[in-house]
Amino acid sequence: MTVRKISLALCCTSLFAFLVACSDQGLNNPYRDNDSARSIIYSSFSERPKELDPVKSYNAGEYEFIAQIYEPPLQYHFLKRPYQLVPLAASQMPEKQFFDATGTLLPEDVDPKQVAYTEYTVTIQSGIRYQPHPAFSKDAAGEFRYHQLTSADLQSINKLADFESVGSRILTAEDYVYQIKRLAHPNLHSPLAGLLSNYIQGFKDFRADVLTHLDQQKTWLDLRQITMSGVEVLDQQRYRIRVEGVYPQFIYWLSMPFFAPIPWEADRFYAQQGMAERNISFDWYPVGTGPYMLTENNPNLRMVLSKNPNFHGELYPTEGEPGDAERGLLQDAGKPLPFVDRIEFSLEKESIPYWNKFLQGYYDTSGISSDSFDQSVELNSRGEFGLSDEMIERDIKLSSAVATSLYYLGFNMLDPVIGGDSKRARLLRRAISIAVDYDEFISIFRNGRGEPAQGPIPPGIFGFEEGRTGINPYVYDWQKGGLKRKSIQHAKQILADAGYANGIDQESGKPLILYFDTVSRGADSKALLNWMVKQFAKLDIQLVIRTTDGNRFMDKLDKGTFQIYQLGWNADYPDPENFFFLLYGPNSMALSKGQNYSNYQNPNYDRLFDKMKAMENSPERLRIIREMNAIVRADAPWVWSFYPKQYSLNHAWYQNVKPNLMANNTFKYRRVDAAKRAQMRKEWNSAVLWPVYALFILLLLSIVPAIISYRKRELARGL
Amino acid sequence: MSAYIIRRMLYAIPILIGINLITFVLFFVVNSPDDMALMQLGSKHTTELQIEDWKRERGYHLPLLYNAEQSGFDALTETIFYQKSAKLFVFDFGSSDSGRDIGYDISQRMWPSLALAIPTLLVGLLVTITLALTIAFFRGTYIDYWAVIICVALISISSLFYIIGGQFLIGKLLKIVPISGFDTGLHALKFMILPVLIGIVGGIGSNTRWYRTIFLEEINKDYVRTARSKGLSEQLVLFKHVLRNALIPILTGVVVVLPLLFMGSLLTENFFGIPGLGSYTIDAINRQDFAIVRAMVFLGSVLYIIGLVLTDISYTLVDPRIRLS
């Protein structure tokens, strides 16, 4: 009996081993089909996209999907730096015209103060078609097949694919205007509505009009029937947006999905009763003209983008910045996009499994988390980061870019001790700016992945300057062609000048105690907070840490009941205005609930900001930016912490990779060498079965004494 | 028995109201409706008007527990607590704060949780009972001695270690199964092997020790001695007599967790990317989606109560001497 069982187990194991040997793919292949030789990009997402409707979507995780589907008028050039806008669905860059209050056309170089409004005329390409979608389907009589659905019609419908017929149509200028109206729709809660209502003429009135219509009409509201004075369809290919005053940054918004076209037919289709209950909506099924369309939306498992058969076509850029050709980034110049048939995003919530699957070749690219940093990157003798031997052996490539982001340690300028415009407070802030050593922070807590910040503008944004001219002279000296942080003795001297010699308030004779408010992140942040306390202790200042949850923290910022805090900012668009506005007086949190959390006020700075904001990039603008930098460096409302540096690893088969921190629609440029990937996967993933056999044999052997003991006991005679 | 069950169900109502109230208070101690609106709308460029619109649309503009502007019963009903909780008692979970149908999401996500939990429970039971019986059989020998040491060692290891260690050893080094992921239908099988195996191994230590204790207690009883004195083999004594009588405490532990199998495992689902109800709850907490948190806590409470009633009923099935009254 036992022998029979053992034989059976051995047979099963042998069969298992045989199957493994016969299998072309590894047993650990997480993908369903034998598709490793197909032109597919394998990526992941960590949580369900909250919104896929371009009217609401506003985060990188969501843009990863919809930026491949929707086509706003403009996009960022894939290769050129500094970041440059180029037409996407538009046939040319928008035409910009200035007008005064009487409607008279003004010259381009007019003083912005004279400009009452600016008109942007956008011309879109002809012949662009929407992806196949049931909203466009018409019957033989030319009537929309699915625009008058009854509950009986919907009985067998659970998803979009259940509609048998699909159609398409040509993209028109009206679709762009329709979407701008959707941005103002009060029930759609676009995060941009508040901002745009300050700029686009008639935006606020349109909102009120929609509310009136909604009161009268409970069904779908055709936004084409309500006019917005600042937006106008000129003809099938052209539309015009009228913006209050001068707002040069407006053009950047035209590259975001907020300004992508929405066909009224789709809005009508999704607004039908019973659709929302079935999750058939823009949030679930986007309708675009881009290179890809969402063919599988199962955020609990996988999201799949497939080539849009109606895509109008686009060519790979033929020029880039110096060095791109040498890096092989122009090998596909002039070739039609997209190169890849399918992009598969799998749900991956934790970084460790993701990293291991990347090493097995099941993901094409990976960021570098702190868990995997030591395994992937090494510091060479010149202090530069390079790939570890293991990565080189796998032919993995490293790419890096300094993010257009900034982290800062902010002071509450309304606080009687640390804030205000007095010399005493300013010197105190400057002394702290020197003492809090962010060079050390970058080295300890970010594995060197960052650059010490010198002011509000990060690299890649107009106004950022490298070298001696770009340093913060209150914290750094320029020595031997590099940055040298001022000594702690110097900081102590400044502190003494401020009246806090040795950390004692000379007026009251009491030790100086400051409070740092931060979000509690459990044990992980303990080392960081200890480090922060030590930085202040260098000046004999006692720092009290007040940790709280995220909501309470924001509440404190809101009410101004804090002294010191830490935050970061990620650019919406590559313009210095998008960073300087964080210190603009009228944008103060205390005054206007704006994003100037430090409540910094400096009339001179505000005046320069107003001027700089309305200017195009020019030497004059750079001069003003330098002046603004000098003001905020001297006032030190923030300790300029660091600009984060992003590293990513890419397998050799994943090509045309160049970090572009502004563009989100870059999948169309990627190329995959699927044959190489299949070969490497096979090489890296042959199952190791001997430990299983060994364990099995060990178990069998360990049973033998037990069997002997059992038989002995069974055969023993009782007394 | 029917009267007993009805009585237990009626007892459940004040318990569920209490649980709802505690969940509500705990949630709103750390989150305000404004925070929830900001979480959904995003903090960039969001205006106060938009926040107010969002709250009004979802009923979060009302006072939390008592509406001083209303009189009589309305002062209690025109509140967030009442408006959001009353429908739960007819299992209408409503929509999440992001607008999705919670009932539909639960119906979709309970299957992956069950696909993970049922085999883990059944195979785990089989393995641990077999091991416990074997150890009980070899009580007092070197097998018993080493089994205790191994079990205590297994109990001492954190479940996170099992997960990461299992993924590293079986998924990464041996490459026998995918490290993480999920699929539908039979394709899910290869993704289930590792988490189920880890679930079983993770439970071996504590369960084997517990069942061994139960078996040893039974083995020393008079009826076992009688069975042996009648000349029955040890195999027969263990499987026919000891196992059957030891089933009562085992059932107590097992039946109570049966309904909770729906709720999924927070840690395992997260690490393996399994889209079950465990990860659904974690995501909702991270997103401050009160509607989902409330629905999941309510569902968990209801299932726990059902589990307790089922345990009582199962007593009567395995031990005819017990009568529910």
Question: What is the strand and helix layout of this fold?
Answer:
The complex is a heterodimer of chains A (719) and B (325).
Chain A: H1 2-22, E1 40-45, H2 60-69, E2 74-76, E3 85-87, E4 95-99, E5 105-106, E6 117-123, H3 173-184, H4 193-196, H5 203-216, E7 231-233, E8 238-244, H6 250-253, H7 264-270, E9 292-298, E10 302-307, E11 314-315, E12 336-337, E13 342-347, H8 351-359, E14 365-367, H9 370-376, E15 377-379, E16 385-387, H10 389-393, E17 397-402, E18 405-411, H11 423-435, H12 438-445, E19 450-452, E20 476-479, E21 482-485, H13 488-497, E22 513-519, H14 526-537, E23 542-548, H15 550-559, E24 564-570, H16 577-580, H17 589-592, H18 603-613, H19 619-635, E25 638-650, E26 654-655, E27 671-672, H20 674-684, H21 690-715
Parallel strand pairs in A: 1-13, 22-23
Antiparallel strand pairs in A: 2-3, 4-5, 4-6, 6-8, 7-8, 9-10, 10-13, 11-12, 14-25, 15-16, 17-25, 18-24, 18-25, 19-25, 20-21, 26-27
Helix pairs in contact in A: 11-13, 18-19
Chain B: H1 2-30, H2 33-41, H3 48-58, H4 74-77, H5 80-85, H6 102-137, H7 142-156, H8 159-173, H9 189-219, H10 222-229, H11 234-257, H12 266-272, H13 277-286, H14 290-318
Helix pairs in contact in B: 1-14, 2-3, 6-9, 7-9, 8-9, 9-11, 10-11, 11-14, 12-13, 13-14
Summarize this entry quickly.
The complex is a heterodimer of chains A (719) and B (325). Chain A is of the alpha+beta class.
Determine the CATH superfamily of the largest domain in chain B. Answer: MetI-like
Name given to the CATH architecture of the largest domain in chain B: Orthogonal Bundle
| Tally of helical runs of chain A | 21
Q: Unreliable runs of chain B, pLDDT <50, ≥5 residues? A: none
- Which oligomeric state applies? heterodimer
Q: Given this structure, which CATH class of the largest domain in chain B is correct?
A: Mainly Alpha
Sequence of secondary-structure elements of chain B = HHHHHHHHHHHHHH
Mean pLDDT of chain B: 85
Main pleated-sheet profile of chain A: 6 strands, antiparallel
